[in-house]
Amino acid sequence: MLDEERRHLIEEECGVFGILGNEEAANHTYLGLHALQHRGQESAGIATTIAGDHNMYVQRRQGLVSEQFTEDVLSRLPGDAAIGHVRYSTSGESAIRNAQPISVSTKYGPIALAHNGNLTNAGALRAKLESQGSIFGTTTDTEVIAHLIAKSLADNMLDAIIDALNQVQGAFSLVCLTPEFMIGLRDPNGVRPLCVGHLDGARVVSSEPTSFTLMGASFERELEPGEMFVTYRDGTEKWMEPFRKQTPTPCIFELVYFSRPDSTVFGRDVYGVRKRMGNILARESGVEADVVVPVPDSGVPAALGFAQESGVPYEVGLVRSHYVGRTFIEPSSQIRHFGVKLKLSPVQSVLEGKRVVVVDDSIVRGTTSRKIIKMVREAGAKEVHFRVASPQTTHPCFYGIDTPERSQLIAASHSLEEIRKYITADTLAYLSIKGLREAVSTNTEDGQSGFCEACFTGDYPIPLASNDRKKAAEEPGKEKVEATVGEPGEMVGAPPAE
Amino acid sequence: MLDEERRHLIEEECGVFGILGNEEAANHTYLGLHALQHRGQESAGIATTIAGDHNMYVQRRQGLVSEQFTEDVLSRLPGDAAIGHVRYSTSGESAIRNAQPISVSTKYGPIALAHNGNLTNAGALRAKLESQGSIFGTTTDTEVIAHLIAKSLADNMLDAIIDALNQVQGAFSLVCLTPEFMIGLRDPNGVRPLCVGHLDGARVVSSEPTSFTLMGASFERELEPGEMFVTYRDGTEKWMEPFRKQTPTPCIFELVYFSRPDSTVFGRDVYGVRKRMGNILARESGVEADVVVPVPDSGVPAALGFAQESGVPYEVGLVRSHYVGRTFIEPSSQIRHFGVKLKLSPVQSVLEGKRVVVVDDSIVRGTTSRKIIKMVREAGAKEVHFRVASPQTTHPCFYGIDTPERSQLIAASHSLEEIRKYITADTLAYLSIKGLREAVSTNTEDGQSGFCEACFTGDYPIPLASNDRKKAAEEPGKEKVEATVGEPGEMVGAPPAE
Amino acid sequence: MLDEERRHLIEEECGVFGILGNEEAANHTYLGLHALQHRGQESAGIATTIAGDHNMYVQRRQGLVSEQFTEDVLSRLPGDAAIGHVRYSTSGESAIRNAQPISVSTKYGPIALAHNGNLTNAGALRAKLESQGSIFGTTTDTEVIAHLIAKSLADNMLDAIIDALNQVQGAFSLVCLTPEFMIGLRDPNGVRPLCVGHLDGARVVSSEPTSFTLMGASFERELEPGEMFVTYRDGTEKWMEPFRKQTPTPCIFELVYFSRPDSTVFGRDVYGVRKRMGNILARESGVEADVVVPVPDSGVPAALGFAQESGVPYEVGLVRSHYVGRTFIEPSSQIRHFGVKLKLSPVQSVLEGKRVVVVDDSIVRGTTSRKIIKMVREAGAKEVHFRVASPQTTHPCFYGIDTPERSQLIAASHSLEEIRKYITADTLAYLSIKGLREAVSTNTEDGQSGFCEACFTGDYPIPLASNDRKKAAEEPGKEKVEATVGEPGEMVGAPPAE
Amino acid sequence: MLDEERRHLIEEECGVFGILGNEEAANHTYLGLHALQHRGQESAGIATTIAGDHNMYVQRRQGLVSEQFTEDVLSRLPGDAAIGHVRYSTSGESAIRNAQPISVSTKYGPIALAHNGNLTNAGALRAKLESQGSIFGTTTDTEVIAHLIAKSLADNMLDAIIDALNQVQGAFSLVCLTPEFMIGLRDPNGVRPLCVGHLDGARVVSSEPTSFTLMGASFERELEPGEMFVTYRDGTEKWMEPFRKQTPTPCIFELVYFSRPDSTVFGRDVYGVRKRMGNILARESGVEADVVVPVPDSGVPAALGFAQESGVPYEVGLVRSHYVGRTFIEPSSQIRHFGVKLKLSPVQSVLEGKRVVVVDDSIVRGTTSRKIIKMVREAGAKEVHFRVASPQTTHPCFYGIDTPERSQLIAASHSLEEIRKYITADTLAYLSIKGLREAVSTNTEDGQSGFCEACFTGDYPIPLASNDRKKAAEEPGKEKVEATVGEPGEMVGAPPAE
């Protein structure tokens, strides 16, 4: 899946980082966020505190960490404790208004919050809080949490945080900073990842361990679902499980697409999982072909797995440009339509006259897949077999990914054959849900992977708001093509007659 | 008083504007704020609403209205109702965080607030609100008002606003915007100005009528102290006096320095008042001299008045550069000290061999006056007589000007003679408080001007917070010089013996 | 004359500065150019050399010196010798391409040139040079000079410069820098100013001595017309007169408008000259009035002179905004027409019910004067008498000011009465040419001022290119009004009957 | 080879594009340059002409085409003919001064030139031109060509261009634009590529055909060495061979590293050539290993070739970050050393406990290779075998790549074993020159590849300037390690004893 497609469809995606006990806290948070930049490229923020000082220092910017957090900006973030956040968001001032960490002053003192995930009862809580006289300056779930903390009757900040989080539902990996302590925690379902490590004497937490690798910190372990870790400035630490227990349902899409291939998430080596998806996909939907080509970069491990399993050679048939910046401005009506072509180029010598298997991690709307297949055909491919290393994405996520409407998801309303026709593939196959489960976990005998697979199955493990329930259930109109229905895991289409 | 000095010492200064009923509401607010730019140059903001839509559109920027509010930014501010704000503030993200209008969502719906002034019980209210579970994202008084509105038990937004404002004390000229109405109001003491006008069918409110002149609106009148004006989208209007009555005490410093010379404020023609200050100053502290020279631009009207009264010719002996931008960056240690010289240049032919009267509106720390006198002497002046068109500034303001500490005010801790020596004038005189009262009002028989003169007298008409009371009363250390004490209104020093 | 009008009409205006022998050469050039910023605000440049190094370091930027030459930019300008340039120019890359100093490599080594003025035979020389195989990368006269230097048969750089300049005609005050020496020189007619001073051991040259005042350098004297000053890195100096002698004809418009009021130019105190223009204008064209009001800032000294001579009180009836930046962007069609109003505001209390004399230094197109008079009338003035402190501007300048076409000059095609009607003044009078001569020089018995007055008389002291001759002579169409002709120095119009 | 390393060592690298006969000439040049961005990322420029107009419109910017050439910039480039250029260069204004296309005015009219390559006699020509009175405003070879054109005695521009180019030696693929025609040509040695195509009725030329693919133009063919193609606005075309014949010696490094893998250059499919380098490298220097890992992205095709030939699985063991922008600012001393780590991350699951073959296209200084091996070892690799898909880079390029000094090339002064020790590989092998020749061309029986291989052999096919000859021959000091010498093509080091 190309960033371009992702940018239009996935509204919310985040990464969080925290460190306590290092004199260069802001600089390390800069590094930690840089390593999480794939989780959100639109805005970034860092909040710091100084020992013995009740101020919260905050800098938030639109743009990449490495471009926005200059030495000058970092110099305004003193102290030995810091938390940070990267996220996607829409442009304009509202983007900055909703940027995180949010920093508020409460009766318990100042607190900064950086949140990855999405609350399912945020709307209800917000309505209740407003009716009780609360004001909201942002549209973030995180501000709801801040209000709940401030309105708690608990004796101290820590208890107030626990109190607040026991009122929320949904997905939340959260990092909090106060002048006294830093907290990292995962919701009871453990939807989003969070891991803990050491950097010399300092404590570090991060959405993914790749942050630790970059700064030379050691990875200790992932937090368990529902686990909360508190590290105090005085050196003491607490590990708690303060929430009602739930059956853990980590997000399987973290393994499919979100997390970095060099990360270990939910106890799985991400690169290995993705290669296995490719292996299984090849077993499920192998096809006579000359070459396996990934959609870079997210399709690379699955394509390698497909190639190794099938024996069809892996080749780099699509070259990605490194020069399409975030600030790319489409200069004229004619150029406006060059989207995918500005980012990908076909390698004719790899594709010409070949039967090509194109492997991608997922399909959202299908428009990019269609353009890629067109490009591959124009380079001379004789056949194009599209293979998707995950099942059909049929349902929106309400736990931190926020695909806005079912109607945007081609697989929500179209059969396999319809999709194949739309993207103009000779054959099309998705990984089956069974294959996906096998890829993420060797033991699938109970038919359950223990993951949230709602985007593929519509089976939402955490109750949705009624509003969202409706969105999840509504039958999207079938606008594009009329055709017979294929089965998931099944291959449709056939090679053209020789 | 040069901007440079002002920038370091006066932390808060604001202007507000509002319009309802014009299709180019944001554009007119742009013009209105441009005409109020002298009241605050560090940040500016505009909030708008569209009829029949519950959104609040807000854009806030650091910098000048005319540079920051480009066509692109204005295009994101749709609707026929808008309010705006200009202010001083410190740099960095915190500046933007505290920028106004603030816009919040409440149980009554969205509201935007633009506030000129300072609440004296903001700290107490904030502490109480925090103890009740409110969170604060800014350090502004305006957020306190927003919380009080949201927590009101009133039935509707308008009553909630009245309820909230009956709980606050201090100086506040306020403009509020909701999807249904726009409000303009002055606190019962009427410390800060606010006036009302018409622009064709639309209603306009502004800190000063100079906004109306610019856009061709007609000036109707100033709001009375404690008066509140509500104009609804449906065309109806209300004029109310919903607050406890107080003896009005408008800020005399608005006439001395803040307001534009072309404005009418508190029923006075500002230019005329300033000229009269110069007239009276000449009568009180005339001196044999060859030329009267203003410190541009704030000293110009008083210098003209001084010259006309004394018969000493008025000349432009100091030329102001128009090319020292807000973004002036001092490029090296050597250039760092050029401050005043980069902004003012002496006209040698006016000053050489002359006995020069230099007239300024006020002295804060005295450092700029000292540099100016040095410059005038280097251009060959034989004598330099410094005349200040207001009394000694001895006390900080807590009603919207916020001179942070008494120790920064040279006149708080130094005698007239000490100041004269420090700034190296041959003679020095301030306008007496009696003279000032005469200048602002022809009828002063009761010995009262009806104005807040706290910065000159320490007599604070609105009760201060205990914290501020201490600051106002504390005896600043005398750090600079030891010398005998002169009397206010008295001239000290003497021309050098020929 | 407001900048706005000037910006549209005057295409070329420059200031130059140089220093040799100071370790902070670039920093001082920064200061020197800041003090000359009124001579050109669109681009600025600095070139430096290091002793014992054959490189030329050059930085050129669009915008104000104080905003563009940051510490970072200055740090790229090492060395103890520097020259600089400020100029007007149109926007876009071409502006930067034509920015100065120009720096070229020649057979004599590198040289940088900063030029104030305009060559009258540049076109002919350029055509000849091109026909001989020269290439031109800019459209500046300065590049012509560089080519002539490089093509000289002289033995060394200094002789080549002299050789080159003996081939050019027109106005040129020039500063040159090579690794060995710095040169300052004025053309034989001495059209543009240039002065020389000392800063400790270093030599400084500048278009106006106001640069020296700012940096604390001492003013030695102005260069004579045709004089050339060479200062070598080894401490030696040469004063030469290497050009064919001409009758000096310095530009009288430098005294009327260009130079800063605090400067001494062509041996005259500029502020004093301008006041005398006002004095004489009052004697020539006095009128019964209540108040004299300048168009700020250029009309101020003449208005003071007018007031003092006439006894009519001087008042600040028009207030200038300091917040209309160079980067002012007009945000919408409605606001686009606010031009003058965004910059000037009327002071109603000064103007209402009054007979007002408005004094400006000159009129170019008349459109701004017309807007100002409208503004003054709307503020309630009973009568508006417009007085111009110079004669009618009837002819374009070809010596460095480049008013592009006669048709843009209202006085080129319209009678005094026609202009009066157009600008809607009750009466209008210009200073007579005789009066101007008297103002600039006490001795005018020979009926000659010794100045170039071509813009007022059409009498061009330096031969023009045939092309320019045509432009100067062509009869501009009379497009605006038809009316009888008034005489220069004569007052037209009459107060309205009571 | 990572960009980072390249940025420090390779000073000059360019791409050129041209189009004539399309109403959106500038927009297409934007696209064409975007597709050539890998050939130079520091500055870009476009020049256009309008039919029937003698102006040349030029915009040059520092930065990426897609970020700098906004709609606003493109709108200043009217016309149906355009040429463009991308290049590397050092920062600062000098970068802009040397940016291309250069545009000059000559006796033949205006011309713009965009040049890829390096002249070997530029210094001598420049000295001669300077001695004849030419001035140089840049340090580019292209300005030398412009001078030669302007000084030609030919009758017209076209003949003057031919005349000029017959005087230069070296590498030059050149695109020229005048109001009448566009030219594309290659030097007689054909060192740099240039190809020709059609876009509907328009003619296009580009350094690589990937530009054509992007815009949907058809590829006609590469220009032959010494061939010149002229396309006139009136639709006529000329194909000429106006230069002295030379034995063609295209740059082999274009195939090794420069050109895009999806391009066809010098009649070779670049991707296929690079894979063959990997195949042959595996045959020459195979090693027992568990995994083959490329240095992304330039090492990818060779690594695939190595893996396919050796049967050792290909894996993505190093992940490249897409978020290290051009404007990356290293924020503190600690972070300053993160260079390679910010760009590459190891995939532990791929590397841990494995015998790893790391494949890169070339080694310049060896510092990056050393850091990569450290990273691979820290991720747990048991053995690291470094394989380089080209021979040792021992000599600087003087034909457009300009590696500044031999002393920077580790292979110029160090034996294979010394390099192996320095980069800390268990074994190290380079592709032999014989292997390289085999990879680029199936027929190598004559022992000659017909390519310029000077960077590997020191055998320079085009005579060098005496100055450059010295640089090429000088014996670089051996600064880093002392060790015995290995042979090219030979593998050094051995797996650690089990």
Structure description:
Four copies of one chain form a homotetramer. The first copy, chain A, is of the alpha+beta class. Chain A has two domains: 3-248, Glutamine Phosphoribosylpyrophosphate, subunit 1, domain 1 (4-Layer Sandwich), CATH 3.60.20; 257-492, Rossmann fold. Chain A is 31% helix and 23% strand. Chain A has a seven-stranded antiparallel beta sheet. Chain A has a six-stranded antiparallel beta sheet with strand order 5-6-7-8-12-13, with helices on one face. A five-stranded mixed beta sheet of chain A has the order 16-19-20-21-22, with helices on both faces. In chain A, helix 6 packs across helix 7, helix 11 crosses helix 12 and helix 11 packs antiparallel against helix 18. Chains A and D meet through helix 2, helix 3, helix 9, helix 12 and helix 14 of A and helix 2, helix 3, helix 9, helix 12 and helix 14 of D.
Short description:
Four copies of one chain form a homotetramer. With 498 residues, chain A is an alpha+beta fold.
Task: Compile the SSE list and pairings.
The structure is a homotetramer of 498-residue chains.
Chain A: H1 3-9, E1 14-20, H2 25-34, E2 43-49, E3 57-62, H3 65-68, H4 71-75, E4 81-87, H5 93-97, E5 102-106, E6 109-119, H6 122-131, H7 141-151, H8 157-165, E7 170-177, E8 181-186, E9 195-199, E10 202-206, H9 210-215, E11 218-222, E12 228-232, E13 237-240, H10 252-258, E14 264-265, E15 268-269, H11 270-285, E16 291-294, H12 300-310, E17 318-320, H13 339-343, E18 344-346, H14 348-351, E19 355-360, H15 367-378, E20 383-388, H16 410-413, H17 416-423, E21 427-430, H18 433-440, H19 454-457, H20 466-473, E22 492-493
Parallel strand pairs in A: 16-19, 19-20, 20-21
Antiparallel strand pairs in A: 1-4, 1-10, 2-3, 2-4, 5-6, 6-7, 7-8, 8-12, 9-10, 9-11, 12-13, 14-15, 17-18, 21-22
